[in-house]
Structure to design on (229 residues):
């Protein structure tokens, strides 16, 4: 079975600071990787995804993530955060062999101070 | 607009009562899922269904039951056997086809409180 570990439970930043949220997964086979975001009062929604190809993927609102296969990592980055980025962020993994079961990390709550 | 509708948004239940949470989607997605979200624990999979009339247990299925009689509907029953049912429940669906393949679409959630 796969597992996902997010390194930070709560991150507090000032506007314009850079962001990096760590995500590591454990699984012996090939996976699809995702970051989902839950803004206050809104549905959980896709931020970005990696299926194959270029390991650096770009998502909405200036976010990007890099897949490092050797480290089983898929860290989320943003060069300059805004107050509107305050949200909860979830890393998720779906094995290619069993696309039915996505496993989520515990989530990271990001608070951006104006 | 296509999406997932969960109801009720808030629900209060007395101990010992069963309660059913509704999940309806008009996205024509084949697969549907139920997750439970607790603070600091992320999302944990309760049940999922990849096709009508078929479903599988997820990681925390004990005390829950589901049915999938129609493609668009995947109701979840929280039974009295669930020892700690107070939680936020999320329904999701997935399209296997096209560029959206493998991406989950989520409903707004149902918050269940057991009194």
């Amino acid at each position: 079975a796969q597992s996902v570990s997010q390194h930070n439970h709560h991150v507090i930043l000032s506007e314009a600071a850079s962001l990096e949220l760590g995500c590591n997964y454990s699984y012996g086979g090939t996976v699809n990787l995702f970051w989902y975001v839950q803004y206050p009062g809104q549905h959980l929604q896709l931020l970005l995804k990696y299926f194959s190809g270029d390991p650096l993927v770009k998502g909405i609102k200036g976010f990007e993530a890099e897949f490092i296969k050797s480290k089983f990592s898929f860290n989320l980055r943003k060069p300059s955060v805004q107050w509107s980025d305050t949200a909860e962020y979830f890393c998720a993994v779906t094995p290619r062999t069993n696309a039915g079961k996505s496993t989520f990390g515990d989530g990271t709550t990001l608070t951006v101070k104006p | 607009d296509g999406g997932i509708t969960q109801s009720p948004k808030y629900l209060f239940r007395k101990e010992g009562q069963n309660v059913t949470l509704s999940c309806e989607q008009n996205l024509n997605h084949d697969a549907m899922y139920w997750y439970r979200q607790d603070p600091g624990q992320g999302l944990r999979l309760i049940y999922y269904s990849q096709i009508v009339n078929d479903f599988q247990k997820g990681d925390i299925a004990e005390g829950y039951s589901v049915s999938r009689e129609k493609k668009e509907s995947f109701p979840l029953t929280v039974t009295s056997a669930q020892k700690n049912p107070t939680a936020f429940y999320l329904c999701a669906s997935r399209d296997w086809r096209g560029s959206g393949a493998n991406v989950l679409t989520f409903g707004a959630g149902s918050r269940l409180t057991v009194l």
